[in-house]
Specification:
This protein has 243 residues and is mostly helical. It has one domain (36-238). Helix content is 76%, strand content 0%. The chain has helices at residues 3-9, 35-66, 71-80, 82-93, 98-117, 120-140, 148-175, 177-205, 213-238. It is elongated, with a radius of gyration of 26 Å. Residues 1-18 and 96-100 have low confidence and may be disordered.
């Protein structure tokens, strides 16, 4: 009697390891990343965005000004430091991101306008074009089948609850009118916040000293962003949308 026969008599299922094309045992599939690992990866990506899109440009501006560089040079260098990060995103995603290309266009256009007018304030207004465009685009998605907040939340949902959680999230969108209303409201709030930031940046660009603008505009953006995030977290917690 073979070992397999003995196992069968004892009620033990004898399973042969799966074989590859050469007859060798196939390698087990690698385990899926845990929710904690996905969340940690998301936080690292957000930290990198904060560093390359905010800290480095602002630090470069004030560092160059402290070293005696002119306002125009300091602002151009601060803006150009964002470009490698934008290019990295395009290469990593293997597709052309509309926002990245638009930001690149604004850097070039703003620099050319400053060369023609000789005014650094023209370059300062450039950032308001970015947030205005983002705000209008976010609000425009309200006209589509799925608004900005529904599509933007996909990565966060996957990071926290995985693909099965994303499927449940999608089912709620299809089945619950209140759920759709709530995400559309959040989309409207974020779009309006971007437009408000744009308008305030234009006012600041022409009313405060040039050297004060990078710091003041950054503080303004952080304050508005903090208010948007605070409202967002309060709203999703109050309405049972928090994952």
């Amino acid at each position: 009697m073979t070992a397999a026969d003995t196992g069968a008599q004892m009620g033990i299922a004898h399973r042969t390891p799966p074989r590859g094309p050469e007859g060798a045992a196939a390698e087990p599939a690698p385990p899926a990343p845990s929710a904690a690992n996905r969340t940690a990866a998301l936080r690292r990506r957000l930290a990198a965005q904060l560093l390359f899109e905010l800290v480095l440009p602002l630090g470069a501006y004030y560092g160059l000004r402290g070293a005696g560089a002119g306002q125009y040079l300091a602002m151009v260098v601060g803006g150009l430091l964002v470009l490698p990060w934008i290019g990295y995103g395009v290469v990593r995603q293997r597709r052309v991101e509309v926002v990245a290309v638009f930001t690149l266009t604004l850097v070039v256009a703003g620099t050319l306008l400053t060369l023609v007018t000789g005014s650094p304030r023209v370059l300062m207004v450039r950032d308001s074009w970015v947030t205005a465009t983002l705000g209008l685009w976010v609000l425009a998605t309200l006209l589509f089948r799925r608004p900005f907040m529904m599509t933007a939340s996909r990565g966060i949902v996957i990071a926290k609850v995985g693909e099965s959680g994303l499927a449940a999230w999608e089912e709620r969108w299809d089945a619950e009118p209140l759920f759709r209303h709530q995400l559309r409201l959040l989309t409207a709030v974020w779009g309006g916040g971007f437009l408000l930031d744009s308008a305030l940046r234009v006012v600041l660009a022409y009313t405060i000293p040039v050297d004060a603008f990078p710091l003041v505009s950054t503080v303004l953006w952080l304050a508005l962003l903090g208010a948007l995030i605070g409202f967002h977290n309060w709203y999703i917690t109050r309405n049972g949308l928090k994952l």
